[in-house]
Every structure is written in C-alpha cells, then in structure tokens.
Amino acid sequence: MNRPLTAFAALLAAAATAASGTLQQQLPSAESILDRYIEVSGGKAAYANLKNLSLTGKIEMPDAGLSGTLTAVSAEPDFSRTTVEFPGAGRFETGTGAGRAWQLNPVQGARLLTGAELKRTLRLYRFNAAFNWRGVYSKVVTEAEEDVAGKPCYRLRLTAKDGEAPDTAWYDKQSGLVVKTRLTLPTEQGDVTMESEPGDYRDVGGIKFPFSISQKVGPQSVKVTFGEARINSELPASVFDLPEAIQKLVK
Question: Sorting pLDDT into bands at 50, 70 and 90, what band is 4?
Fold first, then answer.
C-alpha cells in the first residue's frame, strides 16, 4: 500500500478516535442521568417511602381491533400482578413474586416462566426499579445525544446484572424524565423488540408517574392510558395469591 496514503489513513483514524473520545467526555455520565431522574421525579425520600403502587386504566391494540381495561398492582419487595381484560377475548394475567413469574391467559393457558423469559419478566416488573437501578444494572453508559419527538435527549445503554440483552433508554435533556425505552422480550416464538414512549407525567403522592404509554411490541401498536394511580394504599391480603391453575404448576 502507498505509505503516504497509509499514514494519512492512520492520521484520520486517530483524529476520529480522539474526536469520539472528546464527545464522550462532554456527555454527562449515565450514573448522573439516572440519579437526576430520581430527583426530578420525586426525590430519594419519596422513593424510599414507596411501599406499593396501584394503577388502573385502559389499553388499546388498534392493529388487533382490541380495547380493554388494565389493572396493575406492585409492592415491595418483588410482588406484582397485572390484569388485562378484553371483552370477547378474555383475561390476560402476569404476576411475579418470590423469585417466580407466571402468565395465565386464554391463548397459552397457565405458564410458569423459566430461563430468559423469567429473568426479563422479573426485571421488567421489579418494584421501585428506577430508585434501585444500581441493583439492576452492572454497567450504564451514555452513548449519545439525539432527538426524540423533537426533544434533545441523552441515550443510555443499560446492561443488566442478569446477563440478558441490555436496555436502551432516552432521557429528556431538559426535564430529566425518561421519554423512550427499547428492550428485548424473550418469548416462546423468539425475541421481540418493545419500544415504549411514556408521557403525561403527573404527581402521585410526591412521585411523578407517566399516565400514558405508547408502545410498539413487535408489529403491534399498544396504547395504555391510566385513569388512576395510588401509592401506599391498603391492599387486599389476597392480591398476590397465585391463581389455582398456577398453584398446580408450582406443586
């Protein structure tokens, strides 16, 4: 190879590497962005006092012609139960607790999740995960600054301790709130990409929660709108009890 050209190419590569390093240094650390989210959405004291969360609303899947109701309850340390009911299509439930994750619906029946599905579901429904992010992720990196819906944002790559595929999240540069996430959902049919865009943040007991979430799950569009959110409420003792069909699988 022509030596001057080789030297010139090496010089360009070095310059590009240096420029990339300089840009990376100019971006705020992912740790500071995640900690800022805690502060702007409520503060450490409010999150530390969070014991449970109850959400009710509606869910729409226009591509499938479905519209129904959604109820989600979660509580420390690791309990959750989400119920979606579509008139004419039935009830779809997902629950976590005691290191287990399960699903119950008319399509797949009763399932105890295992392997990658179990890990992802436990991470997806982990209680108070935004506050306890250091317990969830082993490595967090600010990758770039880019626009989401016309708003300048920081894009973060979040590598989980469970060893599964990393998440990507975008945080509004001005407000500090998360405006988009992208993650991989392992399923029986293979991996599916889910993109979510939370919005309409409202104060609930001192913590800001998104009251609308637009999602793209594989080819399907999903719109979730919450009508009510409550924290630290008195929950029924049986709210996290396993359905009979799931109990049979545990035994």
Answer: very low
Burial of 30 (0-12, 13-18, 19+ CB in 10 A): buried
pLDDT of amino acid 44: 98
Q: 3-class DSSP state for residue 239?
A: coil
Would you state the pLDDT for residue 168? 98
Q: Which residues contact 1 (CB under 8 A, 6 or more apart)?
A: none
Quick check: 209 and 194 in contact, CB under 8 A? no
Go through the chain and tell me how many residues it has. 251
**Dihedral sign, Cα of residue 230, residue 235, residue 236, residue 242:** positive
Contacts of 140 (CB under 8 A, 6+ apart): 30, 31, 34, 133, 156, 157, 158, 159
State how far the Cα of 235 lies from the Cα of 66, in Å rounded to an integer.
29
Q: Which domain holds residue 36?
A: 29-250
106 phi/psi in degrees, rounded to 5: -70, -20
Would you call 238 helix, strand, or coil by DSSP?
coil
Residue 10 placed within a domain: no
Q: Which amino acid is at 158?
A: L
Domain of residue 45, CATH code: 2.50.20.10
In a domain, 7, yes or no: no
